[in-house]
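agent: user wants the full assembly modeled, not chains individually. Plan: 1) parse entity lines 2) check alphabet per entity 3) run joint structure prediction 4) return tokens. Steps 1-2 passed, two entities, 226 residues total. Proceeding.
--- entities ---
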Amino acid sequence: GQQLNQSPQSMFIQEGEDVSMNCTSSSIFNTWLWYKQDPGEGPVLLIALYKAGELTSNGRLTAQFGITRKDSFLNISASIPSDVGIYFCAGQANQAGTALIFGKGTTLSVSS
Amino acid sequence: GAVVSQHPSRVICKSGTSVKIECRSLDFQATTMFWYRQFPKQSLMLMATSNEGSKATYEQGVEKDKFLINHASLTLSTLTVTSAHPEDSSFYICSARGLAGKKFFGPGTRLTVL
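--- prediction returned ---
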């Protein structure tokens, strides 16, 4: 199935550092979402973006919906050990009834 | 927020048997549910879209006769893996569509086929 291009694939950082990851698509999306998944669990929604250019924050997390509608980024500031996990971007193309398409994920490791 | 449950959370079965996984929307009605499969260290891949009262729509490469989907009510969709084989071992995750098209994910079901 179709997938988004998500990078980087993995990151190893020190506690307190800022993190940035992004997703790109060859097609336009009307919705961009960012999820975090812990081992053995389902994805948990972090931030949802519904308008091109939209910049939204959730605590230390900030995400933006690219103006071209083909990309999005997620920033995590001042990382802490519990930020460890796999982060997925997901996009929805058109109607609300369509399924989400997921990126391949970014595995974040934080050392204290 | 809206809650989606899955049952069982883990299942181990012998090769050749069938396994049923349930996905329930606990506090909202979901006319549409989605089934994903996730292999280790990989992303979620959409298997099928389940619509209440009608046949499911399967993604290319997913065998509809092997992965039977029944969405008999507005709060329940089931995925049955028939004649399971070791290569079907995976993490199966459902998602239910709620109000305004928002998707809510279940906690996943870990299937291990021996």
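agent: reporting back. Chain A is about 0% helix and 50% strand. The two ends of chain A are 38 Å apart (CA to CA).
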